[in-house]
Amino acid sequence: MRLKKYYSSREVTSLTGLTADQLRWWERQKLVQPAVASHRTEAGGFTERRYTPVDLLEIMVLADLRRRGFSLVHLRGLLDTLRDYFQVRLFEATGEGGRVTLLTDGRDVYARTLDGRFFNLLKDPTQPLLVIGEEASFKVLASRARPRKKKAKKAEPPREHQTPEE
Description:
Blueprint: E1 7-8, H1 9-16, H2 20-28, E2 50-51, H3 53-67, H4 72-84, H5 90-93, E3 100-104, E4 109-113, E5 118-120, E6 124-129, E7 139-140
Antiparallel strand pairs: 1-2, 3-4, 3-7, 4-5, 5-6
């Protein structure tokens, strides 16, 4: 995927699999905010909202977590904890190599710090966890495009061959 300076809300919904209504709802809930808000044009219409590549990457991760069944309350808590406790944004904690790496086992979201400490971000982000054994059951959270599945068109009934009346 080639990065651009800004992505329109249509491009964001196309790349994340979210609907336009979901994206607008997330904005109203202050889960995500466009870098450039919509504004009225001279012709009386409105411009599309615009998002930075960082915004897009974060929305991709949030959309993936939402598809996995995490509620908006959990997503909000995750963003707040990363910001308040670890002093990082979501994009800095996705993938590997940052000060904090996000992992999930499908039920919870964990943070692994560079020094190897683990924290459950949804339960008690201040209490380090003791993790024994392989980390194979954890999946590193990363952003990736997930286009919405297009609705299958209904098959039209075959047209009957009409012959001219005599």
